[in-house]
Design a protein that fits this description.
The complex is a heterodimer of chains A (about 300) and B (about 290). By secondary structure, chain A is mostly helical. Chain A has a single domain, classed as MetI-like (MetI-like fold), CATH 1.10.3720.10. Chain A contains 13 helices and no strands. In chain A, helix 8 crosses helix 10, helix 9 packs antiparallel against helix 10 and helix 12 packs antiparallel against helix 13. Chain B has about 290 residues and is mainly alpha-helical. Chain B folds into two domains: about 50 residues, no CATH class; about 210 residues, MetI-like fold, CATH 1.10.3720.10. Chain B is built from 13 helices and no strands. At the A-B interface, helix 2, helix 4, helix 5, helix 6 and helix 7 of A face helix 1, helix 3, helix 4, helix 5 and helix 6 of B.
């Protein structure tokens, strides 16, 4: 533990010094983070449509929250959000872990290059990735050309305007973009494993599968857990890729909480129900914060 | 370290080859789309690989013209806008975060734990919660439709993770350095400037890369807070060639536009690849 720092200084005069150092961040937090959060929570108890500036003129208590329960679009959005979150937590993480193990144990000559290529989509804006895949899955796009060329003409459909498929495709593209991100994290976790442990196991004649399940995965558990929580929180925040690929459509079929919140508030021609949108965002924040707290607790214990 | 059997060797190669194909094909398709002559686009094998590789730059002037006409902003201007908001957000958040990280390591104070927990929580808050109130705050401050409408929110979003990364790094600076400086009569600011900052250069680079990615690609804030065509950032302008585009856009020009948007980040990625990886790992694990 660091000693208190008070050599040749008067302690009482130093009391406010940390505050001085913290003040730039505190000012930013107060104006652009804390105030907006509190504002959003308070707004969720009012009715405000955004046409006038009389924001807190109509107090309606919990009515916005009661409205959520009866709002079928809210449940569709929540269902899609959960679907997307489960995909990135389990499928995306699983694939990333699998690939990381293969690259780590596979003795690849170009391991670094392979990781860089798989990671590359993660540095491109999700809007641009969305543009790529929108055309990719278009009626006359390459996916359908491929399907037709192998005689599956009846499968060549307008993928993204199919109500049942839209959220699956969004989930696929999200996984495609971010799998390398998790891969990089897992690979760093693998590299931090003590190599002598594995060597000893292999000298004792352990098979690769056995070494992975008995040594590597148990040691990697904290990284796997953190990566899962990271994806969990990230999954709830997904917005850009849906905006670029489907805009929540067709007919709200691929709406998630974030896009539905936008639809209720800023969407031109939408309901412009600012307070209701705030309510949606508050429920989103509550879910995320519960899991953020779990992560912090785990993180504190880990240290 | 471990000798793979033939079967394992084949299996790992097939899996990785498959993964690479899935990642590369969509990107390669756009790349070919951009460099194919308009009349050749439909003659490609499977609509992906060009039959004959005579590349043409024909689509690029088209894309540049399209941006000016349909997006009402030129590519250099989009880049300038993105550079300004990213640089502004970066500088402000690194400045605020390095101060905060220094305070957390250099001083003992009672509310430190509270501040730390607050930072951990705020790192994970979904930005959608802030959207409506931020809009009103920026409206009140008369900052809407200006670079500051993005710089301040970006900086605020960046401070938590940057503070965490820098704090972890600062904590490793040996206390003897501080002690020696104090005996020489150095002020806290001198210790920050002459000891901590120079030693933390790798951590600063990590932070910058991590925040750069978030700010450079940010869309939602830009979409809501910037309604002036000339100030559109790259993702904002690009979003307008997709769904709901006012003008029809030919395949070749579509591809060329994407290539123009991606090539610079590709070059940055190639140069700083190692730092990108470090940034992601630091942001993911240590955060």
């Amino acid at each position: 533990m660091r000693k208190d720092y008070n050599i040749r200084r008067n302690l009482s005069a130093r009391k406010f010094e940390p505050l001085g150092w913290l003040s730039p961040s505190i000012i930013l937090f107060l104006i652009f983070l804390l105030y907006p959060i509190i504002f959003s929570i308070i707004l969720s108890f009012f009715e405000w449509r955004g046409y006038n500036l009389d924001i807190f003129g109509n107090f309606i208590g919990f009515q916005n929250y009661l409205k959520l329960i009866k709002d079928s679009l809210y449940w569709v959005s929540l269902k899609n959000t959960v679907f997307l979150v489960l995909t990135v937590v389990f499928v995306q993480n699983g694939i990333a872990l699998f690939l990381a193990l293969i690259i780590y144990f596979g003795n690849f000559k170009f391991g670094n290059l392979i990781r860089a290529i798989i990671f590359f989509p993660g540095v491109i804006s999700a809007i641009v990735i969305g543009l790529v895949f929108r055309k990719f899955f278009e009626l006359t796009g390459p996916v359908n050309v491929l399907l037709k060329s192998i005689g599956l003409d009846q499968l060549a459909i307008a993928w993204l305007t199919n109500k049942g498929l839209a959220i699956w495709l969004v989930s696929f593209v999200t996984t495609w973009q971010w799998v390398g991100y998790n891969l990089v994290i897992f690979y760093a976790g693998l590299q931090s494993i003590d190599g002598t442990l594995l060597e000893a196991a292999f000298i004792d004649g352990a098979s690769l599968q056995r070494a992975i399940f008995k040594i590597v995965l148990p040691l990697l558990k904290p990284v796997i857990f953190l990566s899962a929580v990271l994806n969990f929180i990230g999954g709830f925040r997904v917005y850009d890729i849906i905006w670029a690929m489907t805009r929540g459509g067709p007919v709200h079929a691929s709406e998630v909480l974030t896009t539905y919140m936008y639809y209720q508030s800023f969407q031109s021609g939408g309901p412009s129900n600012m307070s209701y949108a705030s309510t949606i965002s508050v429920t989103l924040a509550i879910i995320v914060m519960i899991f953020a707290a779990v992560r912090i607790k785990f993180f504190a214990k880990d240290k | 370290m471990f000798k793979l059997t033939i079967g394992q060797k084949v299996f790992t190669r097939i899996i990785i080859a498959l993964a690479l194909v899935i990642i590369i094909v969509p990107l390669l398709w756009v790349f070919f789309l951009a460099f194919k002559k308009p009349e050749e686009i439909y003659q490609s094998t499977l609509f992906i690989f060009p039959k004959n590789f005579n590349f043409s730059l024909e689509n690029f002037p088209g894309a540049i013209k399209f941006a000016q006409k349909a997006l009402e902003v030129s590519y250099p201007r989009m880049y300038l806008n993105s550079v300004i908001v990213t640089a502004g957000g970066l500088i402000l958040s690194i400045f605020a975060a390095s101060f905060a990280a220094f305070a957390m390591v250099h001083y003992k104070f009672r509310s430190k734990e509270i501040y730390y927990t607050f930072i951990l929580l705020s790192y994970m808050i979904p930005v959608q919660v802030l959207l409506i109130p931020l809009y009103l705050v920026l409206l009140k401050l008369k900052l809407l439709n200006s670079y500051f409408a993005l710089i301040f929110p970006y900086a605020t979003m960046g401070v938590p993770i940057a503070t965490l990364i820098l704090r972890n790094f600062f904590a490793q600076v040996p206390y003897e350095f501080t002690e020696a400086a104090l005996i020489d009569g150095a002020s806290s600011f001198q210790i920050y400037k002459n000891i901590y900052l120079p030693l933390a250069r790798p951590a600063l680079a990590t932070c910058i890369i991590f925040l750069f990615l978030e700010m450079w690609n940010e869309f939602l804030f830009a979409f809501i807070f910037i309604r002036v065509d000339a100030l559109q950032t790259l993702p904002l302008a690009m979003s307008r060639i997709g769904i709901g585009a006012k003008f029809p856009i030919p395949w070749g020009i579509y591809g060329a536009s994407i290539v123009i948007a991606v090539v610079p980040i590709f070059i940055v990625f190639m140069i700083f690849q190692r730092w990108f990886v470090r940034g992601i790992v630091a942001g993911g694990i240590k955060g």
